[in-house]
Prior knowledge:
The complex is a heterodimer of chains A (183) and B (171). With 183 residues, chain A is an alpha/beta fold. Chain A is built from 7 helices and 5 strands. The longest helix of chain A is centred in the C-terminal third of the chain and has 17 residues, at 132-148. The mean pLDDT of chain A is 87. A 5-stranded mixed beta sheet of chain B has the order 1-2-5-4-3, covered by helices on one side. In chain B, strands 6-7 form a two-stranded parallel ribbon. In chain B, strand 6 (93-95), helix 3 (104-115) and strand 7 (118-120) form a beta-alpha-beta unit.
Amino acid sequence: MTTNAKDVRKTWEKIADYFRAHSIWMKWYCTGCGAIEMPPTMTSRFDMERLGMGPMATPRQADVLLITGYLSAKTLRRVIYSYEQMQDPKYVVGFGSCTLNGGIYFDSYATMTRLDHYLPVDLYIAGCMPRPEAIMNSFDTLIKMIEKGEAKGWKHYQENHEWYRRNQLHSLKEVYVKDEFHE
Amino acid sequence: MNSTNKLVEEIRQRFEIIDVIHPDDQQVILDIDKMHLHTLLSHLKADGFRQLSLLSAVDWIKDNIFELVYIVFNWDTGVHVLARVKLPRDNPRFRTITPIYPGAQYYERDVHEFFGIEFEGNPMSYKPLFLELWDEMPPMRKDFDPEAYSREKFPERVYVPHFVPKVEVIE
């Protein structure tokens, strides 16, 4: 395993990562059917808060963007908007097989086939849909990844912004949200 | 014999109906010429069919025909009436029904967007509703290929096989 100079964390970054890992505010973007697995994860049955995670209402205060399910061309535009509003450091978790490879609607004219083409995904949860046990397990993994400094998707997005922007524009033509009800 | 017989008899006396089907006790399907659809719907609305439940289209590509489907519902008797008209598939146009049922506004936008049928007299129907920045042919037409569109627009994940089993065929 090779280590580059920029991969070595300074002491204050290690301390910061420790605290980041143990107080995670999560924004879950309910794009598809996967959102139904979140209430049991958050409430008393599986109780997400014992990991130090909590739901957050707005993207500006959130650390983790959880994409639960299918992304249509229209929602992807909003997701990119939300992601760019979030403050660094930020992490993206892709949820279910639909964010991985398109799931059963891979051939639809309206749905994305892979999420990491447009946003840097730190962690994928496989399954259709993943059970709350799998989600808890993945949160545990995510916490360990943040603590070790392995979740570097947001840095990757900054460094390869042109590549991501080119992919976004190829699929969406323009990343600008037009909404006739709010204009 | 069912509860809709009286209604159908009344409509038969006033309009030229091509065909009547009774799929259920409370449901009637009327195939009608497109000249008479607006008068039929006005008559039905005055008769208590206050709600337009659905306006949609069917693409019969082999017959080169678009079929518009109007479903109206009577809350007093619980009867559904489904009226169908046929349009030619090339350059499909039809008159709007928004003066009769204003709620058809969004249905007409939807049908225009997904089937490309133009509704004369409804300028709002040309605005896009669900699809943003769409540049292909309307996607619900049968000759649209969604898989080719998806391949071109949304790149797929390529999986590298880690292990390919070698099988010898013994004859």
